[in-house]
Amino acid sequence: MSSIKKPLVGIVCCKRNQDGHYFHMVGEKYINAITNYSGCTGVLVPIDQEQDINLSVIENMDGFLLTGSLSNVHPKIYQEDLINPEMMLDEPRDQFVFSMIKKIIEKGIPLLAICRGFQEMNVAFGGKLYQDLERDSNHRGHDFDRDQSHNVQYGLSHEVELIKNGLLHNLTGLEKVEVNSLHTQGVKALGEGLTIEAVSHEGLVEAFTIDQTESFNLSVQWHPEWKPGNNLLSQAIFDAFGLACKDFQDQS
């Protein structure tokens, strides 16, 4: 099929300083997952733009992906003080994402959120985050060793339970699955109007959907974009997201 006919998925960039210059960037694994496993075409969305440009981007997309990142949501957005001044932040991305999430949802555009994106979605609906799971909670073993190879970092880490008759359970028929785990932060209080779709072996929220909306949406704490073809759950997520984007394109 010609790529011209494929649905367009806006992949939200991070803004980062490299050698004194700012770059708008996205991890290649997210682009590859959309291109190779969802049947869609990824479009990188820079974040420092005028509001009318942002709205124009929304009008032309068939889906949106909120990616993971090394940066974190600034705690002031969920009414907490920043505890660790060395925490990597990305306030331009915060400003962009939190100005756009509700508009994307109101328009019924399919939305997939991963890791930082998952945390953004929770905060957008009034939820709070643990700024450091190891320091602030009883949840352990969710972070990763940055000195290990990528294959080790993204290897299966712990079990999650898929909520019966939820989206992920219905997509796969599975009740429990192993997922990777590369996050320092996590859900402290779930946002209003969100339904839990998966919890970790010790009860940490790992996936949720939005109530009161018919359009496809899914937020997951783990990283399904890492080699989705090797994982039943990951492939099912990108299949479902891609089909939803195609349906949205056909209805537009």
Explain how this protein is built:
- With 252 residues, the chain is α/β, with parallel strands linked by helices.
- A hairpin with a 2-residue loop joins strand 2 and strand 3.
- It is globular and about 45 Å long.
- It starts with 7 loop residues before the first strand and ends with a helix.
Query: Quick one: biggest sheet?
Result: 9 strands, mixed
In CATH, the homologous superfamily goes by the name Class I glutamine amidotransferase (GATase) domain
Strand order of the largest sheet: 4-1-5-6-13-12-11-8-9
Q: What is the CATH class name? A: Alpha Beta
Return the domain count. 1
Using the coordinates shown, work out and report the CATH topology.
Answer: Rossmann fold
Helix content: 25-40%
Mean pLDDT over all positions = 92
Termini distance? 19 Å
Strand content: 15-25%
- Give me the number of helical elements: 8
Return the CATH architecture. 3-Layer(aba) Sandwich
Number of strands: 13
Q: Mind telling me the C-alpha Rg?
A: 17 Å
Q: Sketch the topology as an H/E string, one letter per element.
A: EEEHEHEHEHEHHEHEEEEEH
List the keywords.
31% helix, alpha/beta, two-stranded antiparallel ribbon, 8 helices, single chain, 252 residues, Rossmann fold
Record the SSE blueprint.
Blueprint: E1 8-12, E2 14-18, E3 21-25, H1 28-37, E4 41-45, H2 51-59, E5 63-66, H3 91-106, E6 111-114, H4 116-124, E7 128-130, H5 133-136, H6 150-153, E8 158-162, H7 167-172, E9 176-179, E10 186-189, E11 194-200, E12 205-210, E13 217-220, H8 232-251
Compact summary:
Helices cover 31% and strands 24% of the residues. With 252 residues, the chain is of the alpha/beta class. Strands 4-1-5-6-13-12-11-8-9 form a 9-stranded mixed β-sheet, with helices on both faces.
